[in-house]
Structure formats: structure tokens, C-alpha cells
Amino acid sequence: MFSDNKKDKQMVENTSNQNIIAQGTKIVGDFNSEGDFRVDGAVEGNIKTSGKVVVGKAGFIKGTLQGTDAYFEGKFSGKLALSGTLTLKTSAHIEGEVVVGKLAVEPGATFNVTCIMKGTVKEMKNGGQQPRQSETEKTA
After folding, report:
1. Per-residue model confidence as pLDDT tens digits over 58-84
2. Fewer CB in 10 Å around end: N or C, the chain?
3. Contact 68, 82 (CB under 8 A)
4. 77 near 98, Cβ under 8 Å?
């Protein structure tokens, strides 16, 4: 008849927090969150999150976005800094400055930015072969 409070608390703790900004909603200001975001409305300001950000087709962000991963179908204008992957769908329109770890762009997306990719640098090997010497190095 009564629920087990411990079980209910565990279910709440295991569920990730997701913030939704619905279509027709406009938020002006700065905010931080540890949860994921879905933006179908408009946001003007600075967003900082350790979660994933999803911007729907009607969504628009103007300002600064710092996070892990972002998935865009809508629009962004400003500075975007992600430690993970930026995914742009066909309807995405991105303008400004972008710093990302990885980038995935579908054909048709608009990507008018200054972009820096900060991933892990892999050292290339020549299969154990020494690089060839040029003619000037041979004669020297």
C-alpha cells in the first residue's frame, strides 16, 4: 500500500535532470546547470552546463554556451565552447566563434564561424621508416 521511500529516492537520483525551454518562451540572462538542456524557445545570455545541449528547429541561442556536447537543429549566434562533440543537422545555422573537441556537420547546415578544434593530438608514425632526405640534405 505504501511505497518504499528508499526506492523512490534512488529512482530520482538515477534520473538525469533535463531543463526544457519550450517554443514561445524567451529567456534573457545568464544561468548554470549540471543537467541537460533542450531549447525550443529563445535564449539571450550565457549558458554554462556540464550536460548536453539540444537546440530544436525553432530554438535560438544568442550569447555564450559552454558545455560538453551540443546537438543543433536551430540557430546559434555568439561564442560556443564544447569539450566534446558539436553535431549540426541540416537545418542548423551557427555564427560566431567555436571551440570544440569534435565536429559533425550534415550537408545543408550553415557554419559561418571561426573554429578551433581542441582534441587529443595523435602522433603520426611512418611505420618505422625514417623520413626521406632531400637532395640538399644529402649533399651537405
Report:
1. 999 999 999 999 999 999 999 999 999
2. N
3. yes
4. no
